[in-house]
Amino acid sequence: MKSWSIYPTPSATERQLGLCCFGAGEKENGTEQMPERALGCHALVWVTEGSGHLQYGPDRELYEVRAPAMLRLHAGVLHSYVPATRWRQAWTLFAGPATEALTTLGHLGTEPVSRYPDPRQIDRAFTRLLRVSRAHNAVQTAAALFDLIAQAAPQPADEIAERLAELACTPMSIQAYADRLDLSVEQLREVVRRTTGSTPHELVLATRLSTAKVLLAEEDLPVAAVARRVGYDDPAYFTRLFTNRVGLSPIAFRRSGETKI
Q1: What CATH number did the domain enclosing 97 receive?
Q2: Pick from 92, 125, 152: which residue ends a domain?
Q3: What is the pLDDT of residues 221-241, one digit of tens each?
C-alpha cells in the first residue's frame, strides 16, 4: 500500500451540506508510539492490518486494536497509537453541523474501537470515500461520508426495536410494550437508544405516523378509522398530533397526495 493524503478546504457553500471531509488517505504505521494529540474535528481510522492499542481520553485508557478495526476519534479528545506490529490504515477527517445529530443518534459511537465479523461493507464504503475525495466532488464526498458512518455505526445484535415497531399501532403503555418484549423499561430504552438513537415513545409515534400516512395516501378511510388503525381512539387528538408533527392536517395531507404519480 502506498501512503498518500489529501486535505480539502470546503467552501462556505460546501459546508452547508452538513458534513465535509477535511482529510483522507492511507498510511502504514511503524511500531513506534505516535505522539499524543487531539484533533480539531472527528476522525474514522480503518485499521486493515496489524495490532496494538489506542490510548484514548484524559485518563489515557488503552483499547486493544486488532485488524479489522475501526477507531473513532472525537474532536478535542487526546489520543495516541501504540502499535504492537506495523499496521495499515485508511483514515478520514470530517466535521460539520451533522456531526451533532449523528452523535445524538449514536452513529459516531461511544466506544473508540470496534471490530466487525464481516468487514467487506466497510471496506467498500471507505474505498468509495477515498476515491471521491480525491476527485474533489463535495456532494459525492458528503454522501460517501454519511454512508461510511452508517456502515461503521455500532450494530446491536438484537431485533427489539424492530419488534417494538411491529407492536406500535397496538395502544399500550411503554411498560406494557416492555413486558411484551420481556424487558424492563430501562432495558427497552437502552436497546432502542443504541439501535435508533431515539426513545421507545418516539419510535412508537414515528411508526404510527408513518402508518397513518400510508393509510391516508393509499386507502379511502375516514380520518377516525385511520386514527383507530394506528392506536388512537380519539380522532380529534390524532388530528392535532398529526398536524403538529407533519405540518399538515390528515385531510390536507391526503389532498396533497391526490396528484401523486
Answers
A1: 2.60.120.10
A2: 152
A3: 999 999 999 999 999 999 999
Q: Does 38 share its domain with 61?
A: yes
Same domain, 208 and 147: no
Please give the Cα distance from 57 to 130 (Å, whole number). 27
Q: How far is CA 131 from CA 17, 25, 69, 74, 242, in A?
A: 19, 10, 21, 24, 43
Cα 254 to Cα 179, 204, 213: the distances in Å are 36, 22, 8
Question: What confidence category does residue 111 fall into, taking pLDDT thresholds of 50, 70 and 90?
Answer: confident
Name the strands in the sheet holding 61-66, side by side, starting at the edge strand that comes first in the sequence. Answer: 37-38, 78-83, 51-56, 61-66
CATH of the domain at 220: 1.10.10.60
Q: Is the peptide bond before 200 cis (omega within 30 degrees of 0)?
A: no
- Give the count of domains, the chain: 2
Its pTM stands at: 0.67
- DSSP annotation of 261 reads -
What residues are paired with 46 via a beta bridge? 70, 90
Q: Domain containing 235: what range?
A: 160-256
